[in-house]
């Protein structure tokens, strides 16, 4: 549905040029919810603006469906944008308009008949769980309700793509979960392709099917959630499967390992000790489900009176479905 090719955005400045996006390549499938995560200043919001051509890329292509938005006329671009809904960090509702009128505003702009606007607004009010509030004004709504209105407004023109720029960062945890559940439900029911820009890994873990890590204007890692979580030495994996705070542990060898699916049920520390002349202690552990895949992440402190056979331990890990993430040098404390 969305294909970005060699996308670069440079802001020309008198003192020096600022490269906000640097050769971005990205593919997002139909009906997929894709998270783009990065710290502040990584280029996330610039990428959103370039996806809609609110900011025109310096180089590269943005293809939505089968249409290259960087090569169309202004009229064609305006029509294409109607197929892309936008949800922002703050709903930015018009205070003088009711819930129904705010939702219907995109249809009013394109001169849709009044009766049709009302019917569409009513349909979307029901969809986002605001039944009975159609005549309410934004000042009378909670933050979560206002964001629901913003989502409904983004859906008014029946888009194919929904772009969400930090849609929950201004909300409390309980309301955040409600909004994320709503976005996933809407995506499933309407077969929407969703792109979520966020700096919160919890949003990615709860909502997304796939994820990209954006840093300093570049995509460093990208893939399906279950795939990137299981990769050895992946920054995304470390963020998706964080270990709890743990005490320093002295050992001859420290291993950080990840297993998934059936491997989660394997007592891997016991197997290492049984198959190798070593003592193994679990220093920290985390077991989580991402999407439909269960993962186990362990930090293992390994000691032995003999020289440790690294090859043997690695063979045990591989045999039981575990990948070695990192190995500390002998004598290192973790």
Concise summary:
The chain has 11 helices and 14 strands.
What is the name of the CATH topology of the largest domain?
Rossmann fold
Q: What is the spatial order of strands in the main beta sheet? A: 6-7-8-3-9-10
Largest sheet: 6 strands, mixed
Overall body shape: elongated
Q: Report the order of strands and helices.
A: EEEHEEHEHHHEHEHEEHHEHEEHE
Number of strands: 14
Give the helix proportion (percent range).
25-40%
- Strand fraction: 25-35%
First-residue to last-residue Cα separation: 44 Å
Task: Provide the domain count.
Answer: 2
- Supply the CATH architecture of the largest domain: 3-Layer(aba) Sandwich
CATH class categorisation of the largest domain? Alpha Beta
- Extract low-pLDDT stretches: 329-334
Structural class category: alpha/beta
Structure overview:
Pfam families: ABC_tran, NIL. GO terms for molecular function: ATP binding. It is a single chain. With 334 residues, this protein is an alpha/beta fold. It folds into 2 domains: 234 residues, P-loop containing nucleotide triphosphate hydrolases (Rossmann fold), CATH 3.40.50.300; 85 residues, Alpha-Beta Plaits (2-Layer Sandwich), CATH 3.30.70. The chain contains 11 helices and 14 strands. The chain has a 6-stranded mixed sheet, with helices on both faces. A 4-stranded antiparallel sheet has the order 2-1-4-5, covered by helices on one side. The chain has a 4-stranded antiparallel sheet with strand order 12-13-11-14. A hairpin with a 6-residue loop joins strand 1 and strand 2. It is elongated. The C terminus is likely disordered.
